[in-house]
């Protein structure tokens, strides 16, 4: 060989070698363009091939050391600069020394037979979200695996992929799998329950054959055919639910008790989510007699029957259909939820199987065997009232008939778009409509009622009043009217600011005019806290509401948070006055109480030089509280955003200071409101209790769903300080 040609060849070889990791023992196959290599990681050898198109590596063979020990393997993320993305065919096949397997987050494909007969792999195996396909027999005979999770990336599971994995008891399949291959989970005898994702469109023959512990299974909606022996020899499988889209059932269900036979239908059933015609077509399978074996016709095959309701002369015409599986009974609660129709001059007597009202339908005893219509029954009663529609917007309704409150018994419906409600009200009933202040639009105030129909207010009634009463005698519509709030405040501005008050009565004046009744107000029903929308520049007076003072307590002082009262105002006075402006934005005022047995010998807030010297008078109140508790608590108390008076306020303060973390518990306290506006208090209460910041007042043995929070219970100054200190320690740790 010429020297020049020899040198060129050596240079080319050196360049190829530099592409591989220095730690690898590198070799190149003579018959392929793809470079290969061997890497030693944690004493184990990996043969690999470089994919020249994208620079990724495929593991082609694994060799454990010769010491015959057991190994926990984490698939390497890379060999040098080549990321490992694929596990090739047979790569780990027959590796009996492998006990624990972690695939990592880079693997995209698992080849056929990749982990075949790795019988010593134990515990859980997770197929990472990066994996898109699992090859044929990839994990077959891996009998030691007890839990398998396939995350949301893989779209196919190959033939025999997990066959004979006897130990698998828990199986979680990703929501992107479309095909489950032939015999994919056959002979997984430890498997008890399987949830097949709705993404699956095809399940191969024998896919779950010999899964002898499997008890029930639901087939996804996109599957069209059940192949032969899909559930063959599943000796514990009693119930199968089939989708409406299924068109062919070829499985003979050998040794499978699902549906059993018509002669012993109580031992299980095959449910089909479709109507009678489609069900019979599927059961008879006229297109494939050779493979159907009339299996469904010979089993306890149950399809959905339709139950319809006929008002039979009543005024209800929009009853929904109810679906019930053949031979099953209508749930009594579902039947009770169907609203009774009304009919002038008649009383409703129940649902009947005939239009004459002779055969009363008994839901507790009657099984549905076919489509059925139930008819309303009626009894003529000359004293039975006729009903008129009452439509109300912006108000709540109370109806009394013959001196009894019948509001909850009325038929009603709500327009979700407008909030308009329509009630069927008996002729002659007394109707009271009360303004719903929660529905007053922002920047508006109530301006009276608009009415249509033959409506006569009772003597002395004013259409401008928040509550009106009348007698029902015809169709009636009642709607709340509103006007701009700015007209009641100032002619040149409608800027309002929130004022939140606990334990006090509020009076608001704009100049010499009392505008209190024109304000928009929301009330927290749990804590009693009220929030007012107050015009900028208005004069506000808050007076102690003595009816709200807890038993055994006396009024102590007003807590104002970061807001400071004007100079000359006494925080301990029962009545305080200030001007609502930019300096008082978001004012939060709460009455504080002390034990009645404790004498108030503390200093006057504004008469103590040490406290007067504080930069903000609101902070001076906290200074006074600290003084009354002792000097050692002064610094801690001054750190509080405000001083809460009850458990609700304390929980909210701690929760908001912690950044509003979500609690771990999902149970809700029954004595805390569960409407949308109350969910913050639910979260705060559960978080504070979970972290033991607030004492548990429930008796031992109280069931979790019955545990209460006791939101209105007062808290002492010491309780507040202890809770605050504990919360700060929690936040810092």
How would you describe this structure to a colleague?
The protein contains eleven helices and 43 strands. Helix 9 packs across helix 10 (679-690). Strand 36 (504-510) and strand 37 (513-514) form a beta hairpin. Among the domains are: 306-380, Listeria-Bacteroides repeat domain (Immunoglobulin-like, Sandwich), CATH 2.60.40; 387-484, Immunoglobulin-like, CATH 2.60.40; 489-638, no CATH class; 647-732, no CATH class. The chain is an alpha/beta fold.
Task: List the keywords.
733 residues, alpha/beta, Immunoglobulin-like, eleven-stranded mixed beta sheet, seven-stranded mixed beta sheet, 11 helices, flat, disordered N terminus
Biggest sheet architecture:
11 strands, mixed
List the total number of helices. Answer: 11
Beta-strand fraction estimate = 25-35%
Q: Give the integer mean of the pLDDT values.
A: 82
Radius of gyration over C-alpha positions, nearest whole angstrom: 38 Å
Helices and strands: which structural class?
A: alpha/beta
Number of strands: 43
Low-pLDDT ranges: 1-33, 601-635
What is the general shape?
flat
Separation of termini?
74 Å
Work out the helicity level.
10-25%
Care to give the gist of this entry?
The chain has about 725 residues and is α/β, with parallel strands linked by helices. About 15% of the residues lie in helices and about 30% in strands. Strands 1, 2, 3, 4, 6, 7, 9, 11, 13, 15 and 16 form an eleven-stranded mixed beta sheet that branches.
